[in-house]
Specification:
It is a single chain. The protein is an alpha/beta fold. The protein has helices at about 10-25, 35-50, 55-60, 70-75, 90-100, 115-125, 145-150, 165-170, 185-190, 225-235, 270-275; strands at about 105-110, 135-140, 155, 170-175, 180-185, 195, 210-215, 240-245, 260-265, 265-270. It has a seven-stranded mixed beta sheet with strand order 6-2-1-7-8-10-9. Strands 3-5-4 form a three-stranded antiparallel beta sheet. Helix 6 links the parallel strand 1 and strand 2 (about 135-140). Helix 2 packs antiparallel against helix 4 and helix 5 (about 90-100) packs across helix 6 (about 115-125).
């Protein structure tokens, strides 16, 4: 039985939302997430002045609000992220970058609010010993709102609390005045990254390989297995022969994809590369420091 709500919301409405977000973005919403859906979409109904979910969904499907699909998708997209989340991946990426000649290209396919692509940029700077390495990072997401936030590169001090004092000094600038309590990533990091909107279910991706690495972490869990397999088939030819695919801690594709073989914890290589022999990157190799920059106010420890 559905709970009492401000807006008219039935089990039929919930099923309809599940169908539409699956068709639009490939996201599978569990049958237990009815209240989550209501909470997120009711804010949008309130903004639009709609009184029922049925009316909102009718307008969405009829095309009377052509820009509403973006708000609908953004509302139902989960964006949990942090700097250097699942930290064991970054030394493996760093070793890959140092062992292969550049220029290097990385695709972060679920960039969210930017913490992950900036972590990739920091890793590249540290391992390649340059604040302007020959590295291009494509940072994409289906949620345009979080992409805009990532592109700004501005975060609260709390968001970088877990970083070492050295990383704070080298890679972030402290805000002053009205921006007190905020930090901005250094422009050198921002220049490495190209933010763009990509729906992994779209027939055409506005990205081109080859890539040294593709990060698609904590995304596959929102897709059903046929959708996962389809995306993985499209990832494989975009990787260089030595390329690596990084997935989230709870994602296992060993029984889903024939294109990839497990190399290390949630790190995969294309099967063709696995046959030819790809060395297992060490996970405890420390990078050398990059040269400090001058002329800007670094974040104090």
């Amino acid at each position: 039985m559905m709970a009492m709500h401000e807006f008219n919301y039935s089990s039929t409405d919930f099923d309809r939302v599940r169908r539409l977000i699956y068709e639009r973005a490939g996201i599978s919403i569990a049958s237990s997430k009815s209240e989550m859906v209501y909470s997120r979409l009711s804010r949008r109904l309130r903004q639009l002045g709609d009184t029922t979910f049925a009316a909102y969904l009718d307008a969405l499907e009829s095309g009377h609000r052509p820009g509403e699909w973006e708000f609908f998708t953004n509302s139902l997209t989960t964006n949990l992220t942090s700097f250097f989340r699942e930290a064991h991946h970054f030394p493996m990426l760093g070793k890959l970058l140092t062992e292969q000649s550049g220029p290097h290209r990385i695709w972060c396919s679920a960039a969210s609010t930017g913490e992950e692509p900036y972590s990739l940029a920091i890793t590249a700077a540290e391992y390649l010993k340059s604040l302007s390495p020959r590295v291009e990072i494509i940072a994409s997401d289906i949620d345009t709102q979080v992409l805009a936030q990532g592109e700004r590169g501005v975060y609260s001090l709390e968001r970088i609390e877990s970083l070492s004092d050295e990383r704070k000094r080298q890679f972030f600038l402290r805000g002053t005045g009205s921006n007190s309590g905020m930090v901005r990533v250094r422009p050198e990091l921002r220049q490495m990254i190209d933010f763009r909107s990509v729906n992994l279910l779209a027939e055409h991706w506005p990205v081109e390989g080859p890539f040294d690495a593709i990060f698609c972490r904590n995304v596959m869990i929102y897709f059903d297995k046929p959708t996962q397999a389809k995306i993985l088939r499209r990832f494989a030819p975009l990787l260089k022969p030595h390329g690596l695919l990084f997935l989230g801690h709870s994602e296992n594709i060993s029984f889903i994809s024939s294109e990839f073989k497990l190399l290390s914890k949630t790190v995969y290589v294309p099967v063709s590369a696995a046959r030819s022999g790809v060395a297992n990157p060490a996970s405890d190799r420390a990078p050398q420091r990059t040269a400090p920059m001058s002329g800007e106010r670094a974040v104090a420890a």
